[in-house]
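Q: Given only this backbone (355 positions), what sequence would you predict?
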Protein backbone atom coordinates (compact mmCIF):
# COMPACT_ATOMS: atom_id res chain seq x y z
CA UNK A 1 0.00 0.00 0.00
CA UNK A 2 1.29 3.44 -0.88
CA UNK A 3 1.18 6.33 1.57
CA UNK A 4 2.39 9.86 2.05
CA UNK A 5 0.94 11.41 -1.12
CA UNK A 6 -0.85 14.71 -0.78
CA UNK A 7 -2.99 16.44 -3.36
CA UNK A 8 -6.53 16.51 -4.61
CA UNK A 9 -8.06 13.83 -6.79
CA UNK A 10 -11.49 14.57 -8.22
CA UNK A 11 -13.47 11.54 -9.34
CA UNK A 12 -16.17 12.37 -11.87
CA UNK A 13 -18.60 9.71 -10.60
CA UNK A 14 -18.54 6.93 -8.01
CA UNK A 15 -16.14 4.08 -8.82
CA UNK A 16 -15.75 0.84 -6.81
CA UNK A 17 -14.60 1.48 -3.23
CA UNK A 18 -11.36 -0.39 -3.73
CA UNK A 19 -10.13 2.49 -5.94
CA UNK A 20 -11.27 5.25 -3.59
CA UNK A 21 -9.78 3.43 -0.59
CA UNK A 22 -6.47 3.12 -2.44
CA UNK A 23 -6.38 6.84 -3.16
CA UNK A 24 -7.22 7.76 0.44
CA UNK A 25 -4.70 5.31 1.86
CA UNK A 26 -2.09 6.98 -0.33
CA UNK A 27 -2.88 10.29 1.38
CA UNK A 28 -4.88 11.92 -1.41
CA UNK A 29 -7.82 14.17 -0.67
CA UNK A 30 -10.61 12.55 -2.71
CA UNK A 31 -13.83 14.18 -3.89
CA UNK A 32 -16.45 12.24 -5.81
CA UNK A 33 -19.11 13.89 -7.92
CA UNK A 34 -22.78 13.43 -6.88
CA UNK A 35 -24.61 10.18 -7.42
CA UNK A 36 -24.26 7.34 -9.90
CA UNK A 37 -27.04 8.72 -12.13
CA UNK A 38 -25.72 12.25 -12.28
CA UNK A 39 -22.78 13.34 -14.47
CA UNK A 40 -20.96 16.66 -13.99
CA UNK A 41 -21.77 19.28 -16.62
CA UNK A 42 -19.05 20.99 -18.65
CA UNK A 43 -18.97 24.03 -16.33
CA UNK A 44 -18.73 21.76 -13.25
CA UNK A 45 -15.80 19.98 -14.82
CA UNK A 46 -14.19 23.31 -15.69
CA UNK A 47 -14.37 24.40 -12.06
CA UNK A 48 -13.09 21.06 -10.80
CA UNK A 49 -10.21 21.03 -13.23
CA UNK A 50 -9.10 24.43 -12.04
CA UNK A 51 -8.97 23.13 -8.49
CA UNK A 52 -7.66 19.57 -8.61
CA UNK A 53 -4.27 17.95 -9.03
CA UNK A 54 -5.52 14.81 -10.76
CA UNK A 55 -8.83 14.03 -12.43
CA UNK A 56 -10.12 10.45 -12.35
CA UNK A 57 -12.63 10.50 -15.20
CA UNK A 58 -15.20 8.11 -16.60
CA UNK A 59 -15.77 7.51 -20.31
CA UNK A 60 -18.97 9.57 -20.11
CA UNK A 61 -17.09 12.78 -19.34
CA UNK A 62 -15.88 14.63 -22.41
CA UNK A 63 -12.60 16.33 -21.54
CA UNK A 64 -12.14 18.77 -24.37
CA UNK A 65 -9.47 21.34 -25.24
CA UNK A 66 -11.26 24.17 -23.39
CA UNK A 67 -11.28 22.17 -20.18
CA UNK A 68 -7.66 21.14 -20.53
CA UNK A 69 -6.49 24.65 -21.33
CA UNK A 70 -8.33 25.94 -18.26
CA UNK A 71 -6.48 23.56 -15.92
CA UNK A 72 -2.94 24.91 -15.50
CA UNK A 73 -2.31 22.91 -12.32
CA UNK A 74 -3.57 19.56 -13.51
CA UNK A 75 -0.96 16.83 -13.10
CA UNK A 76 -2.79 14.12 -14.97
CA UNK A 77 -6.02 12.40 -15.97
CA UNK A 78 -6.61 8.77 -15.01
CA UNK A 79 -9.43 7.53 -17.22
CA UNK A 80 -11.53 4.68 -15.84
CA UNK A 81 -11.78 2.85 -19.21
CA UNK A 82 -9.50 1.34 -21.80
CA UNK A 83 -11.06 3.58 -24.49
CA UNK A 84 -10.00 7.20 -24.25
CA UNK A 85 -11.89 8.89 -27.08
CA UNK A 86 -13.59 11.05 -24.43
CA UNK A 87 -10.32 12.90 -23.84
CA UNK A 88 -8.74 15.23 -26.36
CA UNK A 89 -5.37 13.50 -26.23
CA UNK A 90 -3.37 15.71 -28.65
CA UNK A 91 -4.22 18.78 -26.53
CA UNK A 92 -3.36 16.96 -23.29
CA UNK A 93 -0.03 15.92 -24.80
CA UNK A 94 0.72 19.41 -26.05
CA UNK A 95 0.02 20.79 -22.58
CA UNK A 96 2.20 18.17 -20.84
CA UNK A 97 -0.72 16.40 -19.15
CA UNK A 98 -0.30 12.62 -18.76
CA UNK A 99 -3.40 10.55 -19.52
CA UNK A 100 -3.79 6.91 -18.48
CA UNK A 101 -6.32 4.17 -19.17
CA UNK A 102 -7.20 0.71 -17.78
CA UNK A 103 -6.08 -1.87 -20.36
CA UNK A 104 -5.86 -5.67 -20.05
CA UNK A 105 -8.12 -6.21 -17.04
CA UNK A 106 -11.29 -5.89 -19.11
CA UNK A 107 -10.17 -7.97 -22.09
CA UNK A 108 -11.74 -11.26 -21.00
CA UNK A 109 -14.99 -9.83 -19.62
CA UNK A 110 -15.54 -7.80 -22.80
CA UNK A 111 -14.80 -10.84 -24.97
CA UNK A 112 -17.31 -12.84 -22.91
CA UNK A 113 -19.98 -10.22 -23.44
CA UNK A 114 -19.21 -10.10 -27.16
CA UNK A 115 -20.02 -13.78 -27.28
CA UNK A 116 -23.18 -13.29 -25.24
CA UNK A 117 -24.33 -10.78 -27.87
CA UNK A 118 -23.27 -12.99 -30.76
CA UNK A 119 -25.07 -16.04 -29.42
CA UNK A 120 -28.04 -14.02 -28.20
CA UNK A 121 -28.55 -12.33 -31.57
CA UNK A 122 -27.93 -15.50 -33.61
CA UNK A 123 -30.32 -17.66 -31.57
CA UNK A 124 -32.83 -14.89 -30.80
CA UNK A 125 -32.46 -15.36 -27.06
CA UNK A 126 -33.92 -11.99 -26.06
CA UNK A 127 -36.87 -12.30 -28.44
CA UNK A 128 -37.55 -15.77 -27.09
CA UNK A 129 -37.36 -14.57 -23.51
CA UNK A 130 -39.87 -11.81 -24.31
CA UNK A 131 -42.13 -14.37 -26.01
CA UNK A 132 -42.19 -16.44 -22.82
CA UNK A 133 -42.82 -13.50 -20.51
CA UNK A 134 -45.69 -12.29 -22.67
CA UNK A 135 -47.31 -15.72 -22.30
CA UNK A 136 -47.10 -16.38 -26.06
CA UNK A 137 -45.69 -19.90 -25.68
CA UNK A 138 -48.70 -22.19 -26.13
CA UNK A 139 -47.42 -24.94 -28.39
CA UNK A 140 -43.96 -26.14 -29.43
CA UNK A 141 -43.45 -25.98 -33.21
CA UNK A 142 -40.70 -26.81 -35.71
CA UNK A 143 -40.56 -23.22 -36.97
CA UNK A 144 -40.71 -21.46 -33.63
CA UNK A 145 -38.08 -18.69 -33.32
CA UNK A 146 -35.61 -20.11 -35.82
CA UNK A 147 -32.13 -18.59 -35.67
CA UNK A 148 -28.67 -19.03 -37.17
CA UNK A 149 -26.18 -21.77 -36.30
CA UNK A 150 -22.95 -20.59 -34.71
CA UNK A 151 -21.10 -23.90 -34.66
CA UNK A 152 -21.11 -26.07 -37.81
CA UNK A 153 -24.37 -27.59 -36.59
CA UNK A 154 -25.83 -30.79 -38.01
CA UNK A 155 -25.02 -29.82 -41.58
CA UNK A 156 -21.32 -29.49 -40.83
CA UNK A 157 -21.10 -26.09 -42.51
CA UNK A 158 -18.29 -24.16 -40.82
CA UNK A 159 -19.31 -20.63 -39.88
CA UNK A 160 -16.98 -17.68 -40.28
CA UNK A 161 -16.34 -15.02 -37.69
CA UNK A 162 -14.86 -11.77 -39.00
CA UNK A 163 -13.06 -9.65 -36.43
CA UNK A 164 -12.35 -6.00 -37.22
CA UNK A 165 -9.54 -4.79 -34.96
CA UNK A 166 -7.22 -7.52 -33.72
CA UNK A 167 -5.97 -6.04 -30.46
CA UNK A 168 -6.29 -7.65 -27.06
CA UNK A 169 -10.08 -7.94 -27.09
CA UNK A 170 -10.31 -8.99 -30.74
CA UNK A 171 -7.84 -11.82 -30.05
CA UNK A 172 -9.71 -12.92 -26.92
CA UNK A 173 -12.90 -13.10 -29.00
CA UNK A 174 -11.03 -15.17 -31.62
CA UNK A 175 -9.79 -17.63 -28.98
CA UNK A 176 -13.36 -18.35 -27.90
CA UNK A 177 -14.34 -19.07 -31.52
CA UNK A 178 -12.19 -22.19 -31.45
CA UNK A 179 -14.71 -23.77 -29.10
CA UNK A 180 -17.36 -23.32 -31.78
CA UNK A 181 -15.14 -24.75 -34.53
CA UNK A 182 -15.43 -21.53 -36.50
CA UNK A 183 -13.19 -20.21 -39.21
CA UNK A 184 -11.86 -16.85 -38.05
CA UNK A 185 -10.66 -14.02 -40.26
CA UNK A 186 -9.50 -10.64 -39.05
CA UNK A 187 -8.80 -7.18 -40.42
CA UNK A 188 -6.13 -5.16 -38.68
CA UNK A 189 -4.68 -2.80 -41.29
CA UNK A 190 -1.97 -1.25 -39.10
CA UNK A 191 -0.35 -4.65 -38.33
CA UNK A 192 -1.71 -7.47 -40.53
CA UNK A 193 1.25 -9.66 -39.48
CA UNK A 194 -0.16 -9.69 -35.93
CA UNK A 195 -3.19 -11.59 -37.24
CA UNK A 196 -1.18 -14.26 -39.00
CA UNK A 197 1.33 -14.58 -36.15
CA UNK A 198 -1.43 -15.22 -33.62
CA UNK A 199 -2.37 -18.49 -35.27
CA UNK A 200 -5.97 -17.62 -34.40
CA UNK A 201 -7.16 -16.01 -37.63
CA UNK A 202 -6.33 -15.31 -41.25
CA UNK A 203 -5.64 -11.69 -42.26
CA UNK A 204 -8.08 -10.36 -44.85
CA UNK A 205 -9.16 -7.04 -46.31
CA UNK A 206 -12.22 -5.29 -44.91
CA UNK A 207 -14.10 -5.97 -48.16
CA UNK A 208 -13.30 -9.68 -48.03
CA UNK A 209 -14.24 -9.92 -44.36
CA UNK A 210 -17.61 -8.23 -44.84
CA UNK A 211 -18.54 -10.24 -47.93
CA UNK A 212 -17.69 -13.66 -46.53
CA UNK A 213 -18.38 -13.60 -42.77
CA UNK A 214 -21.44 -14.98 -41.01
CA UNK A 215 -20.63 -12.91 -37.93
CA UNK A 216 -18.81 -9.58 -37.85
CA UNK A 217 -17.48 -8.28 -34.54
CA UNK A 218 -16.00 -4.80 -34.02
CA UNK A 219 -12.97 -4.21 -31.77
CA UNK A 220 -11.39 -0.97 -32.94
CA UNK A 221 -10.88 2.17 -30.88
CA UNK A 222 -12.89 5.21 -31.95
CA UNK A 223 -10.69 7.59 -33.95
CA UNK A 224 -11.35 9.88 -36.90
CA UNK A 225 -10.36 6.92 -39.15
CA UNK A 226 -12.76 4.44 -37.56
CA UNK A 227 -15.76 6.77 -37.14
CA UNK A 228 -18.54 5.28 -39.31
CA UNK A 229 -16.20 2.52 -40.47
CA UNK A 230 -19.38 0.52 -40.90
CA UNK A 231 -21.89 2.54 -42.91
CA UNK A 232 -24.56 1.83 -45.51
CA UNK A 233 -22.07 0.54 -48.10
CA UNK A 234 -20.37 -1.84 -45.67
CA UNK A 235 -23.69 -3.13 -44.33
CA UNK A 236 -24.85 -3.62 -47.90
CA UNK A 237 -21.71 -5.68 -48.59
CA UNK A 238 -22.51 -8.13 -45.76
CA UNK A 239 -24.46 -11.34 -46.15
CA UNK A 240 -28.21 -11.09 -45.57
CA UNK A 241 -27.83 -13.86 -42.95
CA UNK A 242 -24.98 -12.02 -41.17
CA UNK A 243 -24.99 -10.83 -37.57
CA UNK A 244 -23.12 -7.65 -36.54
CA UNK A 245 -21.77 -7.33 -33.00
CA UNK A 246 -20.39 -4.11 -31.53
CA UNK A 247 -18.76 -3.89 -28.11
CA UNK A 248 -16.22 -1.21 -29.10
CA UNK A 249 -17.61 2.31 -29.54
CA UNK A 250 -21.01 3.21 -30.97
CA UNK A 251 -19.80 5.77 -33.50
CA UNK A 252 -17.75 3.10 -35.32
CA UNK A 253 -21.13 2.24 -36.87
CA UNK A 254 -23.44 4.65 -38.68
CA UNK A 255 -26.40 3.76 -36.49
CA UNK A 256 -29.03 5.26 -38.78
CA UNK A 257 -27.71 3.12 -41.65
CA UNK A 258 -27.72 0.10 -39.34
CA UNK A 259 -31.41 0.58 -38.50
CA UNK A 260 -32.16 0.67 -42.22
CA UNK A 261 -30.07 -2.43 -42.93
CA UNK A 262 -31.76 -4.38 -40.11
CA UNK A 263 -35.25 -3.24 -41.13
CA UNK A 264 -34.76 -4.05 -44.81
CA UNK A 265 -33.10 -7.43 -44.21
CA UNK A 266 -29.70 -6.39 -45.60
CA UNK A 267 -28.30 -8.14 -42.52
CA UNK A 268 -30.07 -10.58 -40.21
CA UNK A 269 -29.42 -9.22 -36.73
CA UNK A 270 -27.23 -7.07 -34.51
CA UNK A 271 -25.97 -7.33 -30.95
CA UNK A 272 -24.99 -3.92 -29.59
CA UNK A 273 -23.45 -2.83 -26.32
CA UNK A 274 -22.55 0.69 -27.48
CA UNK A 275 -24.37 3.48 -29.34
CA UNK A 276 -23.40 6.38 -31.53
CA UNK A 277 -25.02 8.99 -29.28
CA UNK A 278 -25.00 7.07 -26.05
CA UNK A 279 -27.19 6.75 -24.01
CA UNK A 280 -29.65 7.62 -26.83
CA UNK A 281 -30.39 5.13 -29.60
CA UNK A 282 -31.13 5.89 -33.25
CA UNK A 283 -34.82 6.19 -34.04
CA UNK A 284 -36.31 2.80 -34.75
CA UNK A 285 -33.51 0.70 -33.23
CA UNK A 286 -35.41 -0.23 -30.08
CA UNK A 287 -38.42 -1.39 -32.12
CA UNK A 288 -36.44 -3.87 -34.21
CA UNK A 289 -36.94 -7.45 -32.98
CA UNK A 290 -33.68 -8.62 -34.57
CA UNK A 291 -31.47 -6.76 -32.12
CA UNK A 292 -30.00 -7.46 -28.72
CA UNK A 293 -29.38 -4.13 -27.01
CA UNK A 294 -27.27 -3.72 -23.88
CA UNK A 295 -26.32 -0.58 -21.91
CA UNK A 296 -22.51 -0.58 -22.39
CA UNK A 297 -21.78 -3.39 -19.93
CA UNK A 298 -18.86 -5.03 -21.76
CA UNK A 299 -16.54 -4.76 -18.76
CA UNK A 300 -19.29 -4.96 -16.14
CA UNK A 301 -18.21 -7.96 -14.11
CA UNK A 302 -17.54 -7.30 -10.44
CA UNK A 303 -13.93 -8.42 -10.65
CA UNK A 304 -13.17 -6.35 -13.74
CA UNK A 305 -14.73 -3.16 -12.46
CA UNK A 306 -12.76 -3.49 -9.19
CA UNK A 307 -9.56 -4.10 -11.14
CA UNK A 308 -10.25 -1.03 -13.30
CA UNK A 309 -10.70 1.05 -10.14
CA UNK A 310 -7.41 -0.22 -8.71
CA UNK A 311 -5.55 0.57 -11.94
CA UNK A 312 -7.06 4.03 -12.33
CA UNK A 313 -6.22 4.83 -8.69
CA UNK A 314 -2.66 3.55 -9.05
CA UNK A 315 -2.17 5.78 -12.09
CA UNK A 316 -3.69 8.76 -10.27
CA UNK A 317 -1.31 8.33 -7.32
CA UNK A 318 1.70 8.18 -9.65
CA UNK A 319 0.47 11.38 -11.33
CA UNK A 320 0.09 13.11 -7.96
CA UNK A 321 3.69 12.26 -7.20
CA UNK A 322 4.90 13.48 -10.58
CA UNK A 323 5.99 9.91 -11.41
CA UNK A 324 5.32 8.12 -14.68
CA UNK A 325 1.84 6.59 -14.60
CA UNK A 326 2.11 2.84 -15.34
CA UNK A 327 -0.68 2.88 -17.95
CA UNK A 328 0.13 6.26 -19.49
CA UNK A 329 -1.12 6.47 -23.09
CA UNK A 330 0.97 9.53 -23.99
CA UNK A 331 4.29 8.55 -22.34
CA UNK A 332 6.24 10.81 -24.72
CA UNK A 333 5.26 13.73 -22.49
CA UNK A 334 7.66 12.58 -19.78
CA UNK A 335 10.50 13.84 -21.98
CA UNK A 336 8.75 17.10 -22.78
CA UNK A 337 9.40 20.62 -21.55
CA UNK A 338 5.63 21.10 -21.18
CA UNK A 339 5.45 18.30 -18.58
CA UNK A 340 8.52 19.56 -16.70
CA UNK A 341 7.11 23.05 -16.54
CA UNK A 342 3.69 21.81 -15.40
CA UNK A 343 5.04 19.56 -12.67
CA UNK A 344 7.38 22.22 -11.34
CA UNK A 345 4.73 24.95 -11.40
CA UNK A 346 2.92 23.91 -8.23
CA UNK A 347 3.29 21.32 -5.54
CA UNK A 348 0.20 19.10 -5.08
CA UNK A 349 -2.18 20.18 -2.36
CA UNK A 350 -1.39 23.88 -2.60
CA UNK A 351 -4.41 26.21 -2.62
CA UNK A 352 -6.21 26.63 -5.94
CA UNK A 353 -8.68 29.01 -7.41
CA UNK A 354 -11.90 26.99 -7.44
CA UNK A 355 -14.44 29.53 -8.61
C1 LIG B 1 -13.83 0.79 -21.88
O1 LIG B 1 -13.13 0.57 -20.88
O2 LIG B 1 -13.43 1.48 -22.81
C2 LIG B 1 -15.18 0.16 -21.92
O3 LIG B 1 -15.94 0.68 -22.95
C3 LIG B 1 -15.91 0.30 -20.62
O4 LIG B 1 -15.27 -0.44 -19.67
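A: Predicted residues:
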Amino acid sequence: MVSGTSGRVFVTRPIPDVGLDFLRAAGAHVEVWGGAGDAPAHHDLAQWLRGCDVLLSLLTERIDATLLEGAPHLRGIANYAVGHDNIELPTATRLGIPVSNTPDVLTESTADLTWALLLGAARRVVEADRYMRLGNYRLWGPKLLLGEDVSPGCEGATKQLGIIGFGRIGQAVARRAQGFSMRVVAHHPSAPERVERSGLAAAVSLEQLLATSDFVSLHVPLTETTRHLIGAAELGAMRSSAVLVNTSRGAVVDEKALVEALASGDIAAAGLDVYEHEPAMATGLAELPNTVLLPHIGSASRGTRDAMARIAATNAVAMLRGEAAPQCINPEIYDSAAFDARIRRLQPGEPRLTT
